Amino acid sequence: MAKRIQFSQHGGPNVLEWVDVEPGDPTDFEVQVENKAIGINYIDTYVRSGLYPSASLPSGLGTEAAGKVVKVGAAVSHFKPGDRVVYAQAPIGAYSEIHNVPQDRLAHLPDAISFEQGAASFLKGLTVHYLLRQTYHVAPGEAFLFHAAAGGVGLIACQWAKALGAHLIGTVGSAEKAAIAQRAGAWATINYREENIAERLSALTDGKKVRVVYDSVGKDTWEASLDCLQPRGLMVSFGNASGPVTGIDLAQLNKKGSLYVTRPSLFGYITNRAELELASNELFSMIASGAIKIDVAEKQKFALRDAQQAHIALENRTTQGSSLLIP
Ligand code: NDP
């Protein structure tokens, strides 16, 4: 038997339950991983709340962790027991001591990267990779807007942008978070609880505005994000921390300057093993070079059984950078 977090109905953090499960043997193409550190992602709150409804209940939670291989299925060729691995986009259920994961979702974790660093950076770092290198190729010296810059994805984006020589203008919810984002490499910050986003961005760019906005906040920032774009600029809407964007009037894109909009997800950018290896090698080399540092605050390392507290902290906006569950 192994312990895991699950939920039997959608709702707030209090629906999370701490239960025993029988993980079962891995199927032919699966690898059984003993999780050493589990990544907490804002997406997990959408799954728990029902914004992204579960196919069946009760359901496990979480898609990302780092750990050691304990067993492999008969057709697994890339991994063996004892290997250090990290995974993202696994079938839901990573909030567990043991998880069976298809081999195409796993990467070998370099020895120089700890389990905690791996679990705190894999899904978020792969996301930043596709956003800044594929959805739109951010150029050295180019200014762009990135919302929630002191969050898990945000702090990696600040560091990646700095390494590229690009000017990330990050929104944040407090003065403390502004300082954290700037230390990580943000070129400038906007406190969106106090400042008008579009006016401040216009001042920071001498009225030029930007060619790309990365928006994971959703409903609350949609309109302001469009107002930050140059004609024919690109709005990358990749999350819903304040609620989903609905009911878009396409004429609005015309009026605001023939804008483009995309709504990407990691699943659309990592569709096979080759894409996973390419992106994870770039991420690992950014970490190995020291360009991206992954430090998780001690108060954001929660025992696995305390997943409820972890979700409360994330949704109350009291966290900065990544948070972890430790089995
Ligand atoms: P974060 O650590 O960034 O936490 C979310 C942050 O959003 C908060 O800390 C808060 O920062 C900000 N925020 C703004 N408005 C609200 C609100 N009303 N309620 C709660 N938070 C708010 O989370 P992650 O790093 O895990 O994820 C960041 C975003 O990226 C999420 O929206 C997630 O869904 C998205 N994502 C999308 C992916 C994709 O491929 N499409 C993949 C991975 C993540 P502050 O206090 O500074 O405002």
TrEMBL record:
The keyword Transmembrane does not apply. Residues 11-325 form the Enoyl reductase (ER) domain. It catalyses: 2 a quinone + NADPH + H(+) = 2 a 1,4-benzosemiquinone + NADP(+). Its EC number is 1.6.5.5. One of its GO terms (cellular component) is cytosol. PANTHER family: QUINONE OXIDOREDUCTASE PIG3-RELATED, QUINONE OXIDOREDUCTASE-RELATED. Belongs to the zinc-containing alcohol dehydrogenase family. Quinone oxidoreductase subfamily. This is NADPH:quinone reductase. It comes from Duffyella gerundensis. The lineage of its organism: Bacteria, Pseudomonadati, Pseudomonadota, Gammaproteobacteria, Enterobacterales. The gene is qor.
